[in-house]
Amino acid sequence: MSLRFFTAGESHGPAITAIVEGMPAGVPVTASVINRQLKRRQLGYGRGRRMQIESDEVELLSGVRHGLTLGSPIALMIRNKDWEKWQAAMAVEPPASPAEAGGPGGDDWRLRPVTRPRPGHADLAGMLKYGFEDARNVLERASARETAMRVAVGAIARQLLAAFGIVIASHVIRMGPVAAPHDPSALPPPPEAFDRVDESPVRCLDEAASRAMVEAVDEAKARGETLGGVFEVIAWGVPPGLGSHVQWDRKLDGRIAQSLMSIQAIKGVEFGLGFETGARFGSDAHDPILYADDRGIYRPTGRAGGVEGGMTNGEPLVVRAAMKPLATLYNPLPSIDMAALKPAEGAIERSDVSAVPAAAVVAEAAVAFELARAMIEKFGGDSLAEMRRNFEAYAAALEARGMRGWRRPAQQ
Ligand SMILES: Cc1cc2nc3c(=O)[nH]c(=O)nc-3n(C[C@H](O)[C@H](O)[C@H](O)COP(=O)(O)O)c2cc1C
Q1: What pLDDT score was predicted for residue 412?
Q2: Contacts of 249 (CB under 8 A, 6+ apart)
Q3: Which of 7, 113, 116, 392 could form a disulfide with 149 if both were Cys (CB 3.0 to 4.6 A apart)?
Q4: Residues near 293 by Cβ (< 8 Å), separated by ≥ 6?
Q5: Nearest C-alpha neighbor of 315 from the set 405, 214, 379
Q6: Structural domain boundaries of the chain?
Q7: Tens digits of per-residue pLDDT, 326-339?
Q8: CA of 261 to the centre of ligand 1 (A)
Q9: CA-CA-CA-CA dihedral for 367, 66, 393, 396, to nearest 10
């Protein structure tokens, strides 16, 4: 059984939790390493007040001892800091009175049922599917609060990857109408080029575009609008041969696409040239295979995004995703009241103007998890040391065949 995880928890419940299973023993993991990633998810111009309330911190409940994984299931918990205000609205026990259930006489807005589904959110489909009158039963779980846990789980995956020299970064290349200069067929710059990307309020490498993106967020906010965008996730140091061509559900590009598409509000995923590849001649769409004595086998371009035949090919993995503008609008779109079946405006929950920079951090975590899973499948082993032996033997075999440019120094 390879690496897997589940999350549980409502947005305004007491906590978000997860169980990660299949992580080998001996991977260095501490709460502070995870908290650093959680902090990055809370960055980004355009986030609402909740980001200040949250300051997420993980608690590791099992599977880690003295800073190293044990190979046993890892249980994690992130408490919701504003749970106190939601205790009645999100209580497990049935309400004692109609007022407490949000009926007449209740003065806490949190208790009132949400009956006006927001176009673009999970509200309507979830109410219909599960037979709910109150969309809160849907939106509490559809909410991107859950992505805090994906980032925490991804932070553990990153620790495994770092032990093999694999590093992951991301940057925002579009926010609404503003696009940063970007060439999807070029090989990405080295990871060091991303060292300071978190210092940009929109996590964009281009300073002029960063400023224009901030202005676009301000303008959207003033108009009660929201903004989507596009970001890119890059992984360096990935060995060739992760994933496989032999079966549909082993293809790594398919798996990564699934995990990125499952992030709230992601509506498109592309590798390398992506959609543009459909407009090109074949001679202009692929990466020639070259050899030089000092570099070994290499590719001069990054049009495939580092995946061919569902397998990594030894080049940096480059994947982009498009995020839709957030569905909660302070100037709501037309909707209906599900209780009366009469026209009404979509409900308003506390909401962000844009969360593209944060979504890119969540996407890094998703890519990290899929890569860690693929590494465990390829190199097996119950402990990191055993995995390393298998990895080194494979790296030596690749070296003997002229493939060496992919490797980066491992941490610790
Ligand atoms: C980091 C992040 C933050 C988000 N914040 C909000 C938000 O404040 N308001 C909102 O309406 N949607 C927000 N979303 C998106 C919704 O959760 C998402 O649109 C909704 O669950 C419906 O799912 P779908 O868009 O994938 O169809 C956010 C998504 C992410 C990744």
Answers
A1: 62
A2: 255
A3: 7
A4: none
A5: 405
A6: 4-82+145-328+351-400
A7: 999 988 999 999 99
A8: 12
A9: 70
CATH 3.60.150.10 correct for 4-82+145-328+351-400: yes
Measuring CA to CA, how many Å separate 298 from each of 166, 242, 335?
18, 17, 54
Q: How far is it, in rounded angstroms, from Cα 268 to Cα 221?
A: 24
| Token duo for residue 251 | 């293809």
144 alpha carbon – ligand 1 mean position (Å): 5
Mind listing the pLDDT tens digit for each residue in 72-100? Answer: 999 999 999 989 999 999 999 998 877 77
Query: Using one digit for the tens of pLDDT, what is the confidence trace for 104-157?
Result: 656 788 999 999 999 999 999 999 999 999 999 999 999 999 999 999 999 999
- pLDDT category of residue 9 using cuts at 50, 70 and 90: very high
- Where is 334: in which H helix or E strand? strand 334-337
Ligand 1 binding pocket includes 143 (Cβ within 6 Å): yes
CB-based contact 38:147 (threshold 8 Å): no
What is the number of the ligand 1 atom nearest to the C-alpha of 41?
1
Q: Please check the confidence at residue 411 and state whether its pLDDT lies above 80.
A: no
Say how many residues make up the chain: 412
Q: How far is Cα 111 from Cα 130, in angstroms, rounded to an integer?
A: 20
Atom from ligand 1 closest to the CA of residue 143: 17
